Amino acid sequence: MSSEKRSPSLSNHQPVRLGWLVGKAALLFVAFNLVFAYFYPLPFLGKISAYNFIFPGRSRLPYGDNPQNSYNLNLYNLEAMFASHEVHGTPKGSDEYRIIMIGDSSTWGFLLHPDQTTASLLNKGNWTSTDGRQIHVYNLGYPVMSLTKDVLILNRALAYQPDLIVWAITLESFPYDKQLFPPLLQNNSSAVRDLITHYNLNLDKNSPDLINPTFYDRTIVGARRPLADLVRLQLYGVMWAATGIDQEIPATYSPAMLDLSDDLSFHNLQPPHLESSEIALDVLQAGFDMVGDIPILLVNEPMLVSQGENSDIRYNFFYPRWAYDDYRKLLANLAAERDWQYLDLWNTIPADQFTNSAVHLSPQGSQQYAEILSQAILQAAQSKPPADD
Amino acid sequence: MPLSFILYLTLAAFLISWLLPTRWKVHGLLIASMVFIYWLQPALTIRNLDFWLPSVAITLTLITWFVTQFPGLSGFKSIWLTLTFIFLTIFGLAILRYLDPICCLTASRPPPYSSVLIYLLFVLILAWITSLLSNKNKAIRYALISVIIGLLIVQKTPILSEFTSTLLRKTTGQDINLASALDISWLGFSYLAFRLLHVLQDANSGRIGKISLGNFLIYALFFPSYTAGPIDRMQRFDQDLHLIEASRHPASILEKLFTLVRSENFVIGSKRILIGIFKKFVLADSLAIIAINDLNAMQVQESTWAWVLIYAYSLRIYLDFSGYTDVAIGIGNLLGIKLPENFSQPYQKTNLTTFWNSWHITLSQWFRAYFFNPVTRWFRSHPGKFPVWLIVLIGQTGTMLLIGLWHGISWNFAIWGLWHAVGLFIHNRWSDWSRPIQNRIQQTKTTKLLWSITSWLITFNYVSLGWVWFALSDLDKSLYVLLKIF
Q1: B151 Cβ neighbours under 8 A, 6+ residues apart
Q2: Which of B:38-57 have CB within 8 Å of A?
Q3: A128 - beta bridge partners?
């Protein structure tokens, strides 16, 4: 065997350097992971955002099932979600009357362009409050139905000093079995537990739905998905800035169901009556308790009232009539009893102005809703001028 | 190619280098290359086509060897073992169809063994006939060149691919209404075709050396570079294979492992693979989110953002392609094969000529060797008839047009090629014309620097704007974007 024919090898010191290199890399890798797991800086990292700096802030919270086409994505880092929103990049001036809208996909504006959402249309009114401040409405809706989700977002949104909160609700957000199902809540278990404890909510703090990150989940390797989501959120910021698109709106979709089943049940509840203890009114109350003196305009949002098959039994896909009628009564009574500003707009939008769901509005429907809502908002802004900042 | 595939390829290369005795290493490479081209071929909707396309790739490679290397009938004695080896590998992959627990290494269930046996018999007869004929004249080699170019044209032309799909669907009794150009996605054929054409053309011009059948198959089907290049030259590759065959390693497995991981090839190869993975899966895939495409090209609202999307595409295509090249070169290193470089910091170049000397280098060299040089040589052989500028224009236009069409036969790729041809021609003329000015500019550091920066800006932007033709699927969209940004 001639030495010339051997595979070339590194000179004597190089294998040692290679060993060191591998050793140091392994050590650093482990160390970084341990430090990361100890501090778990995801919320802090979420605050580092190119939105409102390089790109304009989003007009609604990040949510997107098909990121490639919607230039948006679902992520569960609340700090990052808010940091990407325009409200985060808009310091409240003394001349601003700030309104925050929370709610479900209807408020968020499913199948609506950013400028067609109720919040955007309200802003187009260019209204001022009684004390002359410019009214600006921020859309903090998020497309899942759960009052606990609303309260979680509201809790974070208070940092932006709202003068009025418009809280759009519907019965589907009230059942207890819906409260902890959204992944946004499950992945923010610590914040949700705090809410449950602080407001003594009738929810299970130890629910298996609430994800407890293991030590591995807290490492860089374990948290690679949420870390990648943070990067992706920033990259989609380029597309948001370039196109103004944050949702894929298909040319065609399956319209909301008009012919309904004859099923009388609502979740695990049965007729004849919906009891106040059966729905999460305590979570609703928590929202009111949380905001203190800031007024809330509670809105029972419009829904499709079907006239199709079995519409004598159900209003729409979501609701049997008995449950929804009782819900409205319960809510009206509660609002009167607790002196809440409450607006019941359940049947104010015609059935042909709903898109793919009994609560998703068409652009025209959104316009009608905004017109009705604007009167109530103006009244709320006049009736209770906020204290000076 | 997903990351998992790259890891499997890397693992295979590592195991071949580590565990196989030297005398078996080349055989291991042969089997691995053959198996991987079946394994990498994506599933196709036409029945068994994802088995037959790699089989045809191997057949074309075999025939190319027979028509360029076969010494005559007596030569069969020297290759029967390799042939048996090749046929058994193909047959072995086919009979996995019957072994459910391990079925299958192909994307879908292979055809029945009887079909494969008939096919192998056909290949054997074809090889024999073509080798007999090739001893008589060059015509058979030209015929094979025509077949390969024909297949390449069919693969690159959507309408022809769809027509072929219709024919194949008729043959297999499948619904012809579902025929699509995507049915004929033949992984790696663009590169294989160019390797085979290089060998055939060199054989025609009498410049080819000898190579064994096994080594030739490894060269043509070498699994790290099969799907995305680089396009190596046969004799250079063969030299590396001989070095592998001649190498000696310790007998003990552990000692071999230790020697392997300390070798320069291993260190350099691993580094290249890691760099390639980072470039492709971290940088390029992230940039893909914001790179210009058919959808966002029509949605972008302001010209500034359109520029951002175009620049993102420029970086993305470089990082994506050069990332794959790094992986291929890295895996090649693990095996002791030093594949040629395909990129040399192309975006740092200050003119289009040097850009093309550093972008997809092996493809450019291929076209230079087999198209540009022969064409310009022919023109120059008629002195006085054609001015130099015209020769350059014709040579560059033809070359760039072919490079464009190699990516796919469409107006967009053609115009992309012409875009670069125009750029190269302008640079060529400008270089000649501006030489006195350049000489003056080179005299001071400041003007030299300013000249370099300006040249770089022009080159990078010209290349980036060219990508608008390349990235979008039709002329209207490309024109829309180009008009929008100006």
Answers
A1: B60, B189, B193
A2: none
A3: A134
Q: Determine contact, residues A338/A89, Cβ cutoff 8 Å.
A: no
B293 touches chain A (CB under 8 A): no
For chain B, residues with pLDDT lower than 50 are none
pLDDT over 70 at A156, yes or no: yes
pLDDT score of B314: 98
Q: What is the ipTM of this complex?
A: 0.86
Specify the 3-state DSSP secondary structure of A110.
coil
pLDDT at residue A8 greater than cutoff 50: no
B263, A236: Cβ pair inside 8 Å?
Answer: no
Residue in chain B lying closest to A243 (CA): B300
Contact A235 B265 (CB under 8 A): no
Q: How far apart are CA B323 and CA B325, in angstroms?
A: 5
- The whole-angstrom separation of Cα B460 and Cα B483 is 19
pLDDT one-digit tens code per residue, A204-220: 999 999 999 999 999 99
Model-level pTM? Answer: 0.90
Residue A327 has, within 13 A of its CA and on its CB side, a CA count of: 26
Sheet with A296-300, strands from edge to edge, namely A134-139, A96-102, A164-169, A296-300, A341-344
Q: Which pair of structure tokens corresponds to residue B379?
A: 């023109």
Cβ distance A5 to B296 less than 8 Å, yes or no, reads: no
Interface of A with B in 211-270 (CB under 8 A): 231-232, 235-236, 238-239, 241-245
* Residues A147 and A284 sit within 8 Å (Cβ to Cβ): yes
SS (H, E, C) chain B: CCHHHHHHHHHHHHHHHHHCCHHHHHHHHHHHHHHHHHHHCCCCCCCCHHHHHHHHHHHHHHHHHHHHHCCCHHHHHHHHHHHHHHHHHHHHHHHHHHCHHHCCCCCCCCCCHHHHHHHHHHHHHHHHHHHHHHCCCCHHHHHHHHHHHHHHHHHHCHHHHHHHHHHHHHHHCCCHHHCCHHHHCCCCHHHHHHHHHHHHHHHHCCCCCCCCHHHHHHHHHCHHHCCCCCCCCHHHHHHHHHHHHHCCCCCCHHHHHHHHHHEHHHHHHHHHHHHHHHHHHHHHHHHCCCCCCHHHHHHCCCHHHHHHHHHHHHHHHHHHHHHHHHHHHHHHHHHCCCCCCCCCCHHHCCCHHHHHCCCCHHHHHHHHHHHHHHHHHHHHCCCCCCCHHHHHHHHHHHHHHHHHHHCCCCHHHHHHHHHHHHHHHHHHHHHHHCHHHHHHHCCCHHHHHHHHHHHHHHHHHHHHHHHHHHHCCCHHHHHHHHHHHC
Interchain proximity B290–A9, CB inside 8 Å = no
Look up tokens 């219709």; give the residue.
B166
**With contacts defined as CB-CB under 8 Å, which chain A residues touch B262?**
9-10, 14-15, 18
CA–chain centroid gap for B99, Å, is 34
How far is the C-alpha of A167 from the C-alpha of A169, rounded, in Å? 6
Burial-class residue B256 by CB neighbours within 10 Å (0-12, 13-18, 19+).
Answer: middle
- For the annotated catalytic residues of B, the residue numbers are 407
